[in-house]
Amino acid sequence: MLIVKWQPTAVEDLEAIIDYIANHNTVAAYDLEDHILQSAEDLAEHPYKGRNGRRAGTRELLVHPNYWLVYEVSDLIRITNVIHTSRLYP
Hints:
The chain has about 90 residues and is of the alpha+beta class. It has one domain (about 15-85): RelE-like (YaeB-like fold), CATH 3.30.2310. It has two helices and five strands; from the N terminus they run E-H-H-E-E-E-E. The protein has helices at about 10-20, 25-40, and strands at about 5, 50, 60-65, 65-75, 75-85. A five-stranded mixed sheet has the order 1-5-4-3-2. Strand 4 (about 65-75) and strand 5 (about 75-85) form a beta hairpin. Helix 1 (about 10-20) packs antiparallel against helix 2. About 25% of the residues are buried. Keywords: Toxin-antitoxin system. Belongs to the RelE toxin family.
């Protein structure tokens, strides 16, 4: 089982998403946060669950109809971004 490490950019992305949603619905925001965090932890056992990423060396996992988890697999799982599906990426 691999270790899952969140990069500062991914933490900032997640915090911004949760803060925005919490302004409208606190319960939904924390449910989404729990779901995203659990999905990230599941990658420790299934690192290739996501598809090949649009950026070389990355993978992308759709963790919610509106959010992608972008990560890299090496000797650990490095979560690099959490992005809205409508966001122009990369």
